[in-house]
Structure formats: C-alpha cells, structure tokens
From TrEMBL, chain A:
It comes from Calidithermus roseus. This is Arsenite oxidase subunit AioB. InterPro entries: AioB/IdrB_ssu (IPR014067), Rieske_2Fe-2S (IPR017941), Rieske_2Fe-2S_sf (IPR036922), Rieske_Fe-S_prot (IPR014349). The keyword ATP-binding does not apply. Transmembrane segments: none annotated. Residues 50-144 form the Rieske domain. Its EC number is 1.20.9.1. It is an enzyme of class 1 (oxidoreductase). One of its GO terms (molecular function) is arsenate reductase (azurin) activity. The lineage of its organism: Bacteria, Thermotogati, Deinococcota, Deinococci, Thermales.
Automatic annotation (TrEMBL), chain B:
Gene3D superfamilies: 2.40.40.20, 3.30.200.200, 3.40.50.740, Dimethylsulfoxide Reductase, domain 2. It comes from Calidithermus roseus. InterPro entries: AioA/IdrA_3Fe-4S, AioA/IdrA_lsu, Asp_de-COase-like_dom_sf, MoPterin_dinucl-bd_dom, Mopterin_OxRdtase, Prok_molybdopt-oxidoreductase. It is an enzyme of class 1 (oxidoreductase). One of its GO terms (cellular component) is membrane. Keywords: Iron, Iron-sulfur, Metal-binding, Oxidoreductase. Residues 23-119 form the Arsenite oxidase subunit AioA/Iodate reductase subunit IdrA 3Fe-4S cluster domain. This is Arsenite oxidase subunit AioA.
C-alpha cells in the first residue's frame, strides 16, 4: 500500500494544496511554508502497531515513513492519536533511518529519534528532529500526507 | 509540543564570502565553512547557482552537503547591514572526514548573537551592581572602578595575595591562544597572582601531571592513529558523546574494518591487520561501548571497576603484560629510565607478590574478574602473528582525571602504555581525549608541578570559602555550576559578596568613582567581604552575585587560533561577524586593564610598576597577541628527533598568513622550523620522551588505601544506611558544558530540559521510581533535583548524574576532597540518598524523550 511515485506523478494525484507560502515568517521558511501536495500514504485500517510503512513524499525522491505506535504521539492521528509520519532521511547526513523497537535508528552514525516526541533526536549526532509529515484521516480511513514540518536532509527547500 | 521548524533555508549565492573556521565546542575540532552575504539575495538550488556547488533539491546521503535548520542565522553587523550566516561542516578537513559533524557543531550558526533571537541575552555593556540591580556603565568607568579597587588592595597589602582569579585556560569556545595570552600576561606579568584557578577546578594545575612528569604530554597521538590501531581503549572517556566525530570518523570505521586498506598501506610489510578491538573501561554501559558491541560483535570488552580503583586495574593489566612477556626489553632499556623502573616493578607491578595472590587482590579491589584483566592485557599488548608488536591507542578523559588519586591514576595508565611500547608508533598513543580544544600560551605560572615537582598548588576555592581574598575575578567560566562542593562554595561566596554590597549603603551608594572605590576598599576590610568581577558572554549563574560585569566577545567575533586534541591541529578561526554592543575580546580587556593600572602607577610616580602593566601596549589586532605569545616558546630550530623537547603547543614561526594559506589542513604542533619554514609533528615521542635525558621516567604508584575521609564517612554505620547509593557524574551528547549557549536553543532545551540521573531498573522498582519522575538527590554536602532515566547503563546501587545543566549541578553533592599530590578534585565519586518528589511534571514527560540512550540494536 505504500505509494511510490515520481516527483512528476505526485503533482498529478495531488488532491489539493494545503499550505501556502505567505506572511512574514514564510520568507525565512517557518514550516509549513510551501505548497505541499496532499497524497494518500496508507489507510488507517491496514496499519498494525509497531509496523513501519515507507512511502515517497512530498515527491518521488524523498522517502517518508509511517508508523502506528500504539501509544499517543505528538501530532498523532487516528483514534489513539498514535499514527505519525516522518521524513526517513536522518537529519545528520541523510542515511535512511530504520524503525526498530519503537524508535528510529540511523545505521550510519547511530542517531536515534523518538516518533512519539515529534521525531526528537534523543541520542546521536543529528541536530534537529526528523521532519514530521502532517497527516489527515479521510472519512474512508485513508491517511493523507499534507505537509512537512522540518527540513528534509539534503535540501534547501522541501519542494 | 515542538518548536518552530523550517522547511526552506536561504541559499548562499555564488558570490557569498567564504571563510574557514573550526567548531567552537568540543575537543575534536571539526572544520567548518562560514558563508555570509547581505540579506535580500540568495542563490539557487542548482549546483551552478549556489556557493556550495551542489544540487540542493536532493543530495545523495553522506556525499551531499549537510545544511540543517540549525546551520543558518541572520546577524547584524556594526555597519547596520544584515547578513545571512551559514555555518556548515567543511569537506576538506582531515578531522571531520566526509563532512561529518556533531549536534554541537551543527548549532554554531544559531548560537550567534542577534537581537531577534534568544541570544540577545549576551552581555553588551559593562554593568555595575547598585544594591540589588545592575546598571549599565561605560568601559572607562568600569576600568576606573576595577583598577581603583585592585590598586587599593595592592597598596594596602603590598602583594597580590588577596586578588583571586578563576579563568579559562583553553582553546576554542571564544578563547584560543590570543585570549589565553592576554589573561596570562595580566595576571602573571602585570599582577603576580598566586591565588588563581583554572575554569573547571579549584587550583592552577595540570590534570595530567602523572603523565607529564613521566615525560609524556597528554596530546601525543594523531586522529589517524584511531584508524590504524589494532585495539582502541576508551578509559573513562565516552567518546561517542563527548568527542562524537572522533568516534564516528576515526574509531567506528576501524571497528567496522573499513580502514584495513589504510593499515595495509601505512603499517609494516606483512604485518597482520584486521578490524579493531575495543576495550571500554567505565562503570557505565556507555553509548561508546554499546555502539561498538552493535558494530563489532565479539570484539569488545567492558571492564567496570569500582569507583576510584582504576589505577589498581591499570597496574594489574600491566602486571599481566609483564608476566606474559608482552614487552620489548630492548625498548625499555633504550627509551626508559631503568633505575626508576625498579621502583615501578616493586610498587606498581608488585613483583614481590606472587602473581595469583596479586591478581586475586586486584580483582577484589576493582571488582573486575581476573579473566577480564588478562584478556585486556592480551588485547592491549600480545604480539601479533609474525612477532609484530600490537598497536593499541589508549584514550582517557575525565573518568580517569577526575577520579580519586588523580596523579596515580594517570601515571598508572601511561606506564601501562609505555610498558607495552604503545606510544610513538602509528596506531598507538596514550593520551587525553580532551573536553574542549586547547590553546595555552602564557608567561610562567605560579605552580610548576605536582607534590613531586614544587607543588601542590593552592586550593583557591578553599582559600575563598575560608575567608581569604578581597577581589574575586571570574573569567569565562561558571563556578556556581562547575566547582566541587558547590553548595558550600555558592553559599559562602554569596554571603561574602552580599556583605560588601550591604556595606556600600542601606539605600544610597557613593555616586562618584572615587567615593565608590574608597567605600569598597573600606567595606572589604570591615566586612571580610568579596568584590566580585565576572567577565563573560552572558549573565551566568555566578554573575548574579557579582559587583562588576565585563562583556566579552565570542567565537566568530574575532580571529582566533586553537589546537584540537586528537591531532594538535592548529588552524585559524576566522572572524565573520561583529561582537554585540561594546563586548570585547578577553585579550583586549586585559590590555585595557593593564594600561589603566599603568596610568595609576605613573600618577604615583611608580614607573617600574607602570611598565609591568604595559604588556599589551603594542597589541592592536588579534595577530599581534598571537605573535607576542610565540615569544614564550623556546628556540624551535631543531631536528625532528628533538621534538620531545618542545612544549606541545609550540607554534613559533607560524603567522596568520601561513594559517590562511593552509586552511583546514592546518599544522600540527609542536611546530619546528626547518630552513625558515614551519613544520608540524604528526605523532610524538617516536625517538625521545619529554624529560631532561629523553628517557621515560617511571614512578611507583601507591598501594590501595581505601577512600578518603570525605567519602569513607558515608560507608560506615548509620551513614551507610542513610546514603545507600554511589554517585558518579559526567556529560551527555546533547549539551555543551554549562550550556551557556545551549540554554537559549530549543533543540537543546526540549531534548534535555532538566539535569538528570540514571538509575538501574532494580533500584527503580524498589523505590517505585520510573523514567520521567523527579527526584531529590542529597548527602551532607548538598542537594539537587533531577529527572530520572531508568536504564541498565548503571549497575544496581550506582547512579550517574549529569554533571551540570543550566538548571542545576550535581557538584553540590561532590565533596571538597582533592588529590593531595595535584589538588585535582574527585568529581566522580560520592555517596547519596534519593527520594521521589510526589507529583510530576507532565509537560516534561510529554515533550522529552525518555527512551534508552545506550541501546542501538
């Protein structure tokens, strides 16, 4: 069910622009400050506690990861407020983080991030939390990604 | 709750100004590039459109340019123009290979001063306490008051005994050779101060006289040695958290076997090479250990000595090395003092005690099984197939330095390394990891060495808390968090400074400079009080009791030079912005104080004294001070074989122009001159040690004598019941030192909002304490409140406390004991009681991660 899309096709399935760059702070990029696509990244009925689902967002070259933690999380959606999504690129040097034992671990230099605490880097060399991908639950249970709070590693602009 | 995040950053345009610098924080000294350009323009995402020369829409992991949210800020210079400042890891540094960087260095940009960010809290102007408030004054007024008080004290006393100082003596962190020389010149050339203590301890001393007096300076290896070693020993050093990039770029690749090609290229022909082994000697299961266990299963060894017993353990490993013949007698005879070796054999190796009995004793004292001690000796010293000598790099830090019996601890360790010939060869060394970087150059200081060499130095904390001193001048350090027996220290200094404040007036205070100075001088005599001066970046905890505040300028606000610890790499840290308000470099403040003192003496007709204070007359720019400092070093026109005769930081012959030319490659001190050109030293002591005869000077360590009375009292009778936990202390990855900058950064304060302790799950269950609870920790010395992490990092019955945090210090519970040989405190061992505070702080537990920081698999 993970959506794999190229950068171009993301914009074809774009359900609506949910954030618009405007206002004073936007010029320095306080997130979300860009016109992010809304994109289905899963369905709430298909998630199991402790399982990670990888997808691409906001475009085909950025990997995101969706997890249902089974415990309330900052920014969580769903009945238990326990479903969260993040950029999967470690904010230290861009390696793909792995979801193990309820947290994200980077295999390169061992930064670790807490998905229940807005992606906080509680150990390691990364200086910022994992960028959190905002989620919305549609009536049919579809999970829609609709913005990224935080800068995706390797980019100077998320989109 | 989180905090404002960013999803786009301004892009440095191709014409942005690029400067080289080095991180202001830890011992590693990662190289950084600073890009600045006026606000209003920016570059583009394409490689051809930006100053990085890389595509910023999607870079490949690791190979790309890290530009994180914390690496950008906007500053306003004195010309009124706003500039973007981007500080990113350099790609051409021999230290932070691959553009690696830590969570400390990544925040260099957001720690810059701005009126628009929390760093607006920087001190901008001199300030004088009037009653219970600080009022802004001019520099001229501040100098008149300070020099008036200092001269008044000298005139009355006829000496400088009552002028007490606590000052930084290190590199980076806004210090460097320039500011060290400024401070040293003021107090050792102008004044002749003997009551002076270093930033993090109560006296003016080396933390490693136990090594230096053997002929081994503590910075003797190169970062590349961690890539070439067969075995890496981390002894009381948690490098992953306190020297992160040294661990990830130099140790971890070796553990993973990624440096085997380098070994094949650099080491001897046919020498067997493989991935490294790692021995961690630490009472905790540190992240440095558990990462190694994850990355190199089966090639790690953890020794967990009882607190204070490390020197017994080092001697026991050395005894095994001796018994198993893992030494090279020819080397010992050629390179070490064999007369003194007899004392070492008798007292440290205790060859008079049969091996089995000796090992049983060592095991009983240290709590480390004999088999592990023997395994450690094999890993450190057992020759490799073909008779090749093993290459072991031993890195130690505060776990050894701030241990009980500082001198013997350090001596035992360096002797273990020399016995196994593990100094001066590629892949070897025995030295400090370091906390901060270094940059020491000063006129001769009052204490030459340990008790064996003209010491021990005076305990200035004790001098002050016992009522000594009239002027207390604190520069670039925060003793209200960092000094031992902290609660007593704070209470006494507060009492003494307040006594003077109260004397100055029930309500109104003298309104003229002369009247104020006269009243201060009178008050000092009448009350036994203290006049306290704090020279710093911020209104630190200590400043709250000061009378006079002097604003210092920081890293990036002037050109500075320092060396790092893992390679003694000297580089230029280029100025990229102006200081806030009227803040000045410490060297300039010292120069101005000196010149004002000279004026006062000249008015008295005392020309000789005036001249002493004019040390800084010719200092107009940073490089003038750097070059003046070089005059303290001896002649360095010497061959490479004589490098051991030079001070470790000797940079004579180096100029800013030279450093600009070599950029991130820098030059390794000690620097020698060859044919008029500066030449660096990759690795020390390959041919001689740093003693008069060039031979390593052995020493016989003391026997185990138990704990000092300050701690032993907690192990007896009722006290043992009342204070059932051992407490050790240390640092954490997330924050830097006293958090002087970090407390203004949300990335830091949300992740580590409170000082904390680590508690073993068994103890936690017994006391009904869980992660996130708030506890009081106390003993007869002091009290503190801490957040709890329940973790297997500690053993049952032992807690680890973060040494200090802007919201509290575990040094309150630390005793006033210091090693009688060196006056170095034992910060890392005492006994405490713990109780859970009823209720909790839901805001903390809902925003701060409580996950295990040492579990990576």
């Amino acid at each position: 069910m993970a959506a794999t899309l190229s950068r171009r096709s993301v914009f074809k399935v774009l359900a609506g622009v949910v954030a618009v760059a405007s206002g004073g702070k936007a010029q320095y990029g306080y997130a979300p400050s860009l016109a992010y696509p809304a994109l289905k990244v899963g369905n709430i009925n298909n998630l199991r506690d402790g399982q990670a689902v990888y997808f691409n967002y906001p475009d085909g070259s950025a990997q995101g990861v969706l997890v249902k933690l089974g415990q309330r999380a900052i920014g969580g959606v769903g009945r238990g407020r326990d479903i969260v999504a993040f950029s999967a690129a470690c904010t230290h040097m861009g390696c793909g983080v792995q979801f193990k034992g309820g947290r994200f671990v980077c295999p390169c230099h061992y930064s670790m991030f807490d998905p229940a605490k807005a992606g906080q880097c509680y150990q390691g060399l990364a200086s910022t939390p994992l960028p959190q991908i905002r989620l919305r639950v549609a009536q049919n249970g579809d999970l829609l990604a609709q913005g990224v709070v935080g800068l995706i590693w390797g980019r100077a602009r998320n989109i | 709750m989180s905090y404002e995040r960013r999803d786009q950053l301004p892009i440095p345009p191709r014409n942005a100004t690029v400067r080289n610098t080095v991180c202001q924080y830890c011992n590693v000294g990662c190289g950084y590039k600073v890009y600045t350009w006026p606000v209003g323009t920016q570059g583009g995402l394409e490689a051809s459109q930006n100053a990085f020369g890389v595509n910023l829409s999607a870079q490949p992991p690791i190979a790309g340019q890290t530009y994180s949210e914390t690496m950008h800020s906007i500053v306003t210079n004195k010309d009124g123009v706003q500039y973007h400042v981007v500080i990113v890891p350099a790609k051409d540094s021999p230290i932070n290979l691959n553009g690696d960087h830590s969570s400390r260095g990544a925040t260099n940009a957001i720690a810059t001063f701005s009126e628009g960010r929390a760093t607006r809290e920087r001190l901008k102007y001199p300030m004088l306490r009037v009653g219970d408030q600080f009022q802004v004054i001019t520099w001229q007024e501040a100098l008149n008051i300070l020099c008036g008080v200092a001269k008044g004290i000298r005139d009355k006393d006829g000496n400088d005994d009552n002028i007490a100082v606590k000052a930084f003596d290190h590199g980076a962190s806004g210090a460097g050779f320039e500011n060290n020389y400024g401070v040293g010149s003021l107090f050792f050339k102008g004044f002749s101060v003997k009551h002076i203590a270093i930033h993090n301890r109560p006296a003016y001393n080396s933390e490693v006289w136990g090594s230096r007096e053997r002929g081994v300076h503590e910075l003797n290896y190169d970062a590349s040695d961690a890539r070439l070693a067969d075995t890496i020993v981390l002894w009381g050093a948690n490098t992953y958290e306190t020297g992160s990039v040294f661990y990830t770029e130099h140790m971890l690749p070796n553990l993973r076997g990624a440096t085997i090609p380098e070994k094949q290229q650099s080491l001897e022909r046919n020498e067997p090479v493989e991935a490294a082994y790692m021995i961690v000697v630490d009472p905790r299961r540190t992240s440095s250990l558990t990462i190694a266990q994850t990355a190199a299963p089966g090639r790690t060894l953890h020794l967990r000595p009882n607190l204070g017993t490390d020197y017994i353990l080092a001697n026991a490993i050395a005894r095994v090395i001796w018994e198993r013949g893992y030494y090279n007698m020819q080397y010992l005879q050629n390179r070490t003092d064999m007369a003194k070796f007899e004392e070492y054999k008798a007292k440290s190796l205790k060859l008079g005690t049969p091996y089995a009995e000796f090992m049983a004793q060592a095991s009983r004292i240290t709590g480390v099984p004999r088999a592990d001690i023997e395994k450690a000796a094999d890993w450190i010293a057992k020759p490799k197939t073909g008779g090749f000598r093993r290459r072991t790099l031993t890195i130690y830090e505060k776990g050894m330095i701030w241990n009980m019996k500082n001198y013997d601890q350090i001596a035992a360790l360096v002797q273990m390394a020399v016995l196994s010939q593990n100094i001066g060869r590629p892949g070897t060394g025995c030295g400090r990891q370091g906390g901060h970087q270094e940059g020491y150059v000063r006129p001769p200081s009052p204490t030459p060495g340990s008790i064996y060499n003209g010491g021990p130095p005076v305990n200035v904390d004790k001098y002050l808390t016992d009522g000594g001193g009239k002027l207390y001048w604190v520069i670039g350090t925060n003793p209200y968090l960092s000094t031992p027996n902290n609660q007593l220290f704070r209470k006494r200094i507060h009492e003494r400074t307040k006594a003077l404040t109260d004397y100055l007036g029930q309500s109104g205070e003298p309104g003229t400079t002369e009247g104020y100075v006269t009243k201060v001088l009178e008050g000092l005599e009448a009350t036994g009080g203290l006049f306290m001066v704090v020279q710093d970046l911020y209104m630190i905890h200590t400043a709250l009791d000061a009378h006079l505040l002097l604003p210092a300028s920081a890293w990036g606000e002037a050109n500075q030079t320092s060396i790092n610890c893992n390679s003694r790499l000297l580089r230029l840290y280029e100025k990229f912005m102006d200081p806030p308000g009227e803040a000045k470099q410490d060297w300039e403040i010292c120069k101005l104080v000196g010149l004002r003192m000279a004026d006062l003496y000249r008015k008295d007709g005392n020309e000789a004294e005036a001249r002493k204070f004019e040390f800084g007359k010719g200092w107009n720019k940073d490089e003038d001070v750097f070059l003046a400092g070089a005059s303290e070093f001896p002649d360095n026109n010497i061959p490479a074989s004589e490098e051991a005769t030079l001070p470790a930081e000797c940079y004579k012959g180096v100029t800013y122009a030279f450093l600009k030319q070599v950029g991130q490659q820098g030059i390794r001190t000690p620097v020698r001159m060859e044919n008029g050109k500066p030449v660096g030293t990759l690795r020390r002591y390959s041919t001689k040690f740093g003693t008069k005869d060039g031979k390593f000077s052995w020493y016989g360590t003391d026997d185990w004598e138990g704990y000092p009375p300050e701690v032993q009292k907690y192990l007896e009778g009722d006290m043992a019941q009342k204070y059932p936990f051992w407490m050790t202390t240390g640092r954490a990855q997330v924050i830097w030192q006293t958090m002087y900058n970090d407390r203004f950064l949300p990335e830091k304060m949300l992740t580590l909002p409170l000082p904390y302790i680590e508690l073993h799950p068994q103890d936690a269950q017994r006391l009904s304490i869980k992660s996130g609870d708030i506890v009081e920790v106390w003993n007869e010395e002091g009290n503190g409140t801490f957040m709890v992490y329940v973790t297997d990092a500690v053993k049952p019955g032992l807690i680890f406390a973060l040494q200090y945090h802007t919201r509290g210090t575990s040094n309150s519970m630390v005793s006033g004991y210091t090693d009688p040989k060196t006056t170095i405190p034992w910060y890392k061992g005492t006994r405490v009681a713990i109780r859970k505070l009823s209720g909790g702080l839901p805001d903390v537990t809902s925003n701060t991660s409580l996950l295990a920081q040492n579990k990576f698999d």
